[in-house]
Amino acid sequence: MSLGKYDHKKTEAKWQKKWAKEELYTPDISKAENKFYNLFMFPYLSAEGLHAGHAFSSTGSDIYGRFMRMNGKDVFQPMGYDSFGIHSENYAIKVGEKPRVMLKRTKKHFEGQLKSLGHGYDWTRTVTTSDPNYYRWTQWLFIQMFKAGLAYRKKALVNFCPSCKTVLADEQVVDGQCERCQAEVEKKEMEQWFFKITDYADRLLNGLTRIDWSERVKAAQKNWIGRSAGMQIEFKIQNSKFKIPVFTTRPDTLESATFIATSNKKAAWGKEKPDKFTGKYAINPVNGRELPIWETNYVEESYGTGAIMGVPAYDERDMDFAKKYGIDIVIEELNEGLWEKIEKEGWGKKQTNYHLRDWLVSRQRYWGAPIPMIYCRKHGWVPVPEEELPVLLPDIKNYKPEGTGKGPLANHPEFYNAACPECGGNAKRETDVMDTFVDSSWYFLRYPSVGLNDRHPEGDRKGSRGVGFAFDPEITKNWLPVDLYFGGAEHAVLHLMYARFVTMVLYDLGYLKFEEPFPKFFAHGLMIKDGAKMSKSRGNVVNPDKYISKFGADALRLYLMFVGPMDGSPDFRDTGIEGMRRFIVRVWNLFTDDISQHPGGGRLALSEAEGMNSSGVDVMKSKQHQTIKKVTEDIQKFKYNTAIAAIMELVNTISAAGGGSSDRLKILKDLCLLLAPFAPHLAEEVWHSGLGFKSSVHKSAWPKYDEKYLQADQAVIVVQVNGKLRSQLTISHQSSTIKDEVLRLAKEDEKVKKWLKSGRIKKEIFISGKLVNFVV
Ligand code: ANZ
Question: What integer pLDDT is reported at residue 611 of this predicted model?
């Protein structure tokens, strides 16, 4: 057996084919004692293919899955496509194709790319949200919401994107702009479908304390939900029988209130109405002061009561307003006792408000799941009977949005004319479709159950309906919740909030046994190119294909993981990949050289090695065990860059030691195992053709370290700032003598950082192997 020259194309194609054929990454879904559901956010199909940013994040997720598999878990790692929705549809419009036609092509390309990266996905269970087999269950979900009183229609001032020509949810408006196309959003009064997510505000908030998510993402959800405890206080209007209720979080400032402001209704963004004094006054109940009533833009209509008490003395915006219009400024002392007094006197009562609004789910677009509701003059809105699902999205020619307030399906009587499910009379289907975020709010529930009841191919509506389930109860009980969810933080208040809400609803309806779908979520960073976030609109997108072709998927994977921590924002550079390619060839040659020194190949050599005495290889041995420890712990913390650095150091040590002892082969075997999650093809090839194993390296046990070898090579460095002990570093003897390395590590130390912040470093004192002192 021999390895020959390193040929990434041959090696990678060979293993990808074998893995697929042997279904290496397809767990037995009926067994779940040892399950690990490793989920990565599925992509939108809003471009021709993936960019390097996707490769970066999906590799990060894949490495963790491979690591868990080698640690004895039955890993389920599925992949799918979030293919319905405005993002895909806008792209189809741009390239001048029907969404269906475009998706056929782009989906294939995405899949090819994901496969060429060597990810361990279970390709036998994929989800495509625009597939009727899937969206019939999205429609089912809508109906469950409706039946539970959680889906309703309401006329409201809503966000309208003039470019996408549809309404949007609050969460899709970022700084007043459409999340998809960055157009300035307008406010319009329209009747729409909403999901009552506000009923779950408290649970969404409280649940955050029980899940392992980064503080940043939890804070984003917390702020978005925006619970504030305060009071509703009623102010009598002078010479009138009416009162104005205001919401305040600061009743203790009531004595300093000098005006009342109400929302300047119908003010649209960009077209603000001028502030106006109404000529009326309200009376401050605590001191009888007359408070002028103003209408202004800065009071939001839909928050609290849509009116405030102006307290210029304690509130900056109120102060600005008072100054502008010459309103009195009165400063009374804060009075905590007012909380009680206001209630006792009957001026107001305690109230908790939320910033969270109900989720607007209807869209006046074509490319989405039709909302499965029928309007009958007699019976109002009636859900489509579940056995008639899916309501198929018809193939129409003019699918572009028109901005008339209705979706393109409203031009198709053959679609919307229907019989009322209650009385059989003439009725009309809803012609709006659902927001994509409804599709993705439950896809993780579907994956393990894919293939179990796919009996509804598009077009075949006869005899293919009736029984079935969105997700199999038994399998769902065994495989969910998701063990690790890996994805972008930009979905903090969108997808991640919606999925939690939908899960809670399904829990309440008895379909699920858990309330939190993602007990552990890791938010990866975003890849940068030339200093800016990689994105299509900036035109700085890097296509991974050419790098895979030129250097190999393993080189690209290692490079992407090495450039920085997984939650950072690494900059993509060509030169780095070339360097990584050289490293791979070095590793390859290391195996080739060693193995060639053992006639009969590595496998034989390994068995000979059992029981041999290990003297003479102490340095290497301690390095080996230190590396295992470091790589294991770093992967657990998603610090793949430092794990790879440790593997590189091990390679250096092995190369420097030279020679072909049998112990050395054992060390090489561990090196191969450590490399497996990062460079899966290379490791598999070495494992089989070099070391002679029959089963896959990816199903082999992760190496274990032995404490007794760890100590040998450790030095403790004392770190001082201005002569005071601030921290200690435990590093290898070898590194402890390298000044630059020690200084770098000392400066990165959290405890030291704190002390260095206060000033500039004037002097760096270094005593090799012992001490660092920073003078600041
Ligand atoms: C008097 C006061 C004095 C206030 C003070 C604040 C500071 P959060 O925490 O966001 O709930 N407010 C109430 N309704 C509003 C609306 N519809 N549009 C704009 N502002 C509104 O903020 C609650 C505070 O924001 C309330 O407490 C109210 O101003 C204002 F020193 O009342 B406060």
Answer: 36
Q: How many CB atoms lie within 10 A of CB 253?
A: 21
pLDDT grade for 469, boundaries at 50, 70 and 90: confident
Residues present in the chain in total:
776
- Express each pLDDT in 654-696 by its tens digit: 887 766 566 788 899 999 999 999 999 999 999 999 899 999 9
Residues 60-81 pLDDT 10s? 999 999 999 999 999 999 999 9
Q: How far is the CA of 222 from the centre of ligand 1 (A)?
A: 18
- Give the HSE-up count for residue 514: Cα atoms under 13 Å, Cβ half-sphere: 18
**Peptide bond preceding 481 in cis form (omega within 30 of 0):** yes
For residue 501, what are its two tokens?
Answer: 């809400």
The tokens describing 266, both together, are 């119908």
What is residue 200's DSSP assignment?
A: G
Question: For residues 82 and 43, is the Cβ–Cβ distance under 8 A?
Answer: yes
Does ligand 1 have an atom closer than 6 angstroms to the CB of 314?
yes
Q: Rounded to 5, what percent of the chain is helix, strand, coil?
A: 40, 20, 40
Strand partners, 283: 236, 290
Task: Judge residue 139's burial from the number of C-beta atoms within 10 Å of its C-beta, 0-12 exposed, 13-18 middle, 19 or more buried.
Answer: buried
Q: 410 Cβ partners below 8 Å, 6+ apart?
A: 404, 416, 431
Strand boundaries in 489-636, DSSP class E: 521-524, 528-529, 532-533
Q: How far is the CA of 490 from the centre of ligand 1 (A)?
A: 28
Instruction: Tell me the two tokens of residue 41.
Output: 């956010």
- Tell me how far apart the alpha carbons of residues 205 and 363 are, in angstroms, rounded to a whole number: 27
- Give the residue, out of 315, 352, 353, with the most ligand 1 atoms within 8 A of its beta carbon, to mutate for a pocket test: 315
The gap between the terminal CA atoms of the chain, to the nearest Å, is 60
Q: Measure the CA–CA gap between 490 and 87, rounded to whole angstroms.
A: 15
Calculate ∠ Cα 33-446-108, nearest 5°. 115
Query: 95 — phi, psi (to 5°)?
Result: -90, 0
What is the amino acid identity at position 647? I
Nearest CA to ligand 1 atom 32: 248
* CA–centroid distance, residue 622 to ligand 1 (Å): 62
**Residue 540 near ligand 1, beta carbon < 6 Å:** no
**Is the distance from CB of 262 to CB of 276 less than 8 angstroms?**
no
C-beta separation of 481 from 176 below 8 A: no
Tokens 């390709």, located at residue: 123
619 close to 639: Cβ distance less than 8 angstroms: no
Mutate-to-test residue for ligand 1 from 223, 249, 332, 355, highest number of ligand atoms within 8 A of CB:
249
Check whether the bond before 570 is cis (ω within 30° of 0). Answer: no
DSSP classification of residue 776: -
Query: CA of 738: how far to CAs of 311, 657, 715, 741, 742, in Å?
Result: 62, 20, 12, 5, 6
Q: Cα of 168 to ligand 1 centre, how many Å?
A: 26
Identify the CA nearest to 373 among candidates 391, 352, 396. Answer: 391
| Mean pLDDT value across residues 738-747 | 90
Residue 369: closest CA among 155, 163, 142:
142
Q: Is 434 helix (H, G, I), strand (E, B) or coil?
A: strand
The arrangement of strands across the sheet holding 724-732 comes to 724-732, 714-721, 771-775, 763-767
Calculate the CA dihedral of residues 416, 422, 425, 428 and round it to 10 degrees. -20
Strands (E) in 475-531, as ranges, are: 484-488, 521-524, 528-529
User: Can you give the pLDDT at residue 660?
Assistant: 59
Q: 417-419 and 426-429 as β-strands: parallel, antiparallel, unpaired?
A: antiparallel
The distance of Cα 76 from the centroid of its chain, to the nearest Å, equals 18
Among 396, 416, 498, which Cα is nearest to 82's? Answer: 498
Nearest CA to ligand 1 atom 19: 299
Residue 327 CB–ligand 1 contact under 6 Å: no
Is residue 432 within 8 A of residue 190, CB to CB? The reply is: no
Give tens-digit pLDDT for 364-383.
999 999 999 999 999 999 99
